[in-house]
Each structure stands twice: as structure tokens, then as C-alpha cells.
Give the backbone structure.
Amino acid sequence: MGLPELLVAPFRYPFMARGLLAATMVGVVCPVVGTYVVLRGMAFFGDALAHAVLPGVAVGFLTSHGGRRSVFWWALGTAILASLGIGAVARRGRLREDTAIGIVLAGMFALGIALISTVRGYAVDLVHFLFGNVLGVSRGDLLLTALLGGLVLALVLALYKEFLVVSFDATLAATLRLPVRLYNGLLLILIAVAVVVSLQTVGVALMLALLVTPASTAYLLVRRVPAMMFLGAGFGVLSGLIGLYLSYYAGIASGAAIVLVATGFFVIVLFAAPRRGLLWRRRSN
Amino acid sequence: MSASKRAPGDTACPSGHGPIWTRVRRKPLEAHVAGTPALEVDGLTVHYGGRLALEGIHFELEEGAELGVVGPNGAGKSTLLKAIAGIAAPSAGEVRVYGHVPSGHICIAYLPQRSEVDWRFPLSVEDVVMMGRSARLGPLRRPGPRDRNLVRGTLDLVELAPLARRSIGELSGGEQQRMFIARALAQEADLVLLDEPLAGLDLRSQEGILTLLSALRQRGITLLVALHDLGIAADRFGKVLLLKKSQLGFGPPAEVFRAEALKEAYGASLRMVRAEEGLFVVSDAPCDKEPCDGTP
């Protein structure tokens, strides 16, 4: 079997082809939104959001006896609620933001597990939401991913300069009389949508990697925000593709394979990035 | 054209260009009321985080005036600037900028302390200056040739044009400060508030910033500058405001910087030497910047 044959073979299976499409779309959407997660230092928030979705997933699953569509919308509703809830707890209370996030994360995750534990028979399917099941993506899922992912990208593009000002200098945004809280809330919602859309690809537990890792890899290489988004999306898509090959040929769980490839890219760039990489610095010393 | 000096009474603040949907805002912007002072602060009291930060501040500035705001650490200098910028709400009294409350204006620029900025953000100098345009552009619109020209012009003025594409993380302290001044100009600000713009700069950079500030004044821009250095305030500013939560003096430095008032503001950290012609050589908090060697 030649190399071209090796590369094409996996995607002869329709479920692999659908998985590749899903991984590609998620690979673009997550790093674009993740650029703001990285630049604003919201990694912990992203992780919390992914975990906080679990009770929504559980309720959707239980009320519809496993219907995907229902799970999706419940997850989305929960994610948006959780992201706004974390913001409100951090603003109101005298707690530090990371403490507020930690409380919401653990509480919601526990609620999700509690709900799951009431019906042991379904637990196997729910495991897919914890660790992802990109190969179980249906045509309907793909359409929904494309629609919502497209919406997220369109909003990030349309409100690029607003999100940038609000993220870099909130005081400037306030003196320019921009609706800072509206834009911050909207950004949180976009992150929530990206999380839910990606849920099936890598699952709750590994979600954070897609938000943070490709965008950070790009950050090490470029010096402008749009370039960081583009290159991050490139790393995201490549991670999805190579991850699926790894999953197919080495028999590794697909979500884990994708995240491992993304992490591999990061490590390589961390060491070898021109001028900023660790190897480079050692040589110039 | 817009960064040049405006005729008095010109209602320069609201943005009036672009189709209607680009002008959607939560609050309408205020026009300047002709004949009103650039800034009126009347009995201003501000609580910050539940604590009294400022009390009973009262002064007025004409267009093109330059005010040095001095006082010890924690005296409320930043709070005063933020209240004037309309981003800290007064608990009593009021601030009026060209006759209106500040929160209706987009012609007030607040320059943050350099330590408050995340310099690792992947932005070029040009990117940051262009941010000053975002309010005039309105949502959804991209910067046009007019905006790019304006940004280039302001970078020329602050002598940063050759560094326009440089990453902000690679700038020196003086360059960072000049970039923010360019941003205030790109914003078409009429009132510019600077929070410790000279902190941590070497003497040459300090001089550069001070020269640039007088160039702004000549364009009719009103300046409020929070300062640490009483000497610079005395030498370079026509008017000073001495703060320690309440107002200990407002007016020309020679009138405000009197032994009594300075002692009240700085207490034990102030040392004074009587010199010729009734001047005082004063030094504020000697341990503030350099390592303190403990000698008196």
C-alpha cells in the first residue's frame, strides 16, 4: 500500500469522512475564539465552561432518551447560562474571579455526574460526551456545527475591532462609550457556543485543549491578532486531520489523538520557533 | 484635518459621518456647549470599593489649560482622572465637560499608567493607535483611508512613524507613552487625562513627553496630568492641584506649594529646605523609586 493509498483509505468510510469534516470545522472555530481566551487569560474560564455543560447534556439526554438534537440545545443553554452566571458571581461577590469560576465548575460538574448516575444504563453513551466521539457525528450534527460555527466566525469578524478594544484596554473602551459589558457578555456566549459545537469532537474533559493549544502555538510564531487567528486555525485543522489518522491507524481514541497532535505542535514550536523558541535562545546565548 | 485646532464652540465631539446604522449607541453623544469651560468639577466626592477616595473637589479649567495633579500615593489622583473621564461614578457633586456630564462624551482620552497595560498582547503600534478610532467608526465598520491617514499623521506628530509596525512589547517606556498620546489624538480628544505619564522614564524621555504635551496644548487640547514629581509640576505647569483625598490647593504652583499645604499632604515623607527667594526645595517619599539606603 503506497502513501497516497494510506492517506485516502480511512476516509472511504462515511463516518470517518464526517468525522474529518467535523474536526475541520471545530479546528477553525475553536482557535479563532480561543485567541481571545488566550490573550485575556481566560483558560480556566474555558475549562469551567466545558465542564459546566455536563448537567445540560445529562438533562437533554434523559428527557429525549438519547436524542442528539435535544442534547445539543440543552448543552448550549447550559453553557450560556453558566458563562453569564460565572460573570455575575465574579462581579457581585467579593470573591476573586477564579474562585467564583472554580465553585461554578465543580458544582455544575457534580450535578451532571449526579444526574448521569441515576440511569446507569445510559452511562456508556454519556461517556462520549466526556471524551468525545467524533466518529459518531451524523449529517444533522454536521449541519448544525456548520451553521453555529459560521455564526461564531461571522460575529468575531464583524465585531473584530470592538472585541479587540474591550480585551486590550477596557478603560479605553469605557471612555469611547462602547457598551463594554454587552461585548464582554457576547464574547462569553461565543466561547460557550464554540465549546458546545466542539463537544462531540473532543468531549468535555479535553475541550480546553482546542480553545487554548492551537491559539497559543500560533501566538509563539506571530505578532498580530488576525495572524494568530489564521495560524491557530491552521494548527487546529492539521491537528484534527493528523489526529484522525493516528486514531485510525494506531487505534487511539479520536479526541485524545487530536489533542495530542495539537500538543505536539505546541511543544515543537515552543522549542524551535524562530527567535522566540527555547533552542533559538540557547544558541544566541 | 480633524487633529488640527478647532474653532471655539465647534461641536467636535459627536461623530456625524456614516450611515445611520453605524451610529447606533446606547446614549446620544453630547455636543459642546459654546462658551462653557472645558472642565468644571463641582463638589466632587467619589467612593471607590466602599471607601471614600475623594471629597469635595472643586475647580474649573479653560480650554487649552494644563493642570498638574499632585499628591502622595493613594491621594486619589487616579480616581479623580477616572471620575473626570466618566468611568468612575461620583457619589456626590458633579463633573461637566464642555457643559455636559462626561459619560456622554467621546472626546475625553484617559491614558493608563504603563504598568496597567498587557504589553504581551500581539499588537503593533499602529493597531493600538487605530483603537482610538473605534468610537468614531461605530460598530461593524472598518477603518477607511481617512482613519489610516489620521493615524499616520498622529504617529508622525509623536515621532513614532518609523515604528508603526513594531510590536508594542518592543517599545521603550517613552515610546509606549507617546503611542498612547497618539491614540488620544486619533480619538480626536479635546480633554486628555494622563495618569503618571513620566513614571519610570529617564530624564530625556520625560523631557520628550513634556514637549509633546505643550504641542497638544497649542492645539487647544486641555490637559490633566497626574504627577509624582513636585519639581516638574512647579516648573512646567501653569496650574496645579494638590490632593490628599480632599483638595489642599488649586492654582499657580507658587500659591499652592506652601509649606503648610505640602506638610499636610505629604506629612513625614516630605523634607524641606528653605532656600533663596522664599523657595522650598522639597522631596517627596525618598524611598519611592530608588532603593532606600536608610541615610537621612
Remarks:
- Residues 1-28, 286-296 of chain B have pLDDT under 50 and may be disordered.
- Chain B has one domain: 20-284.
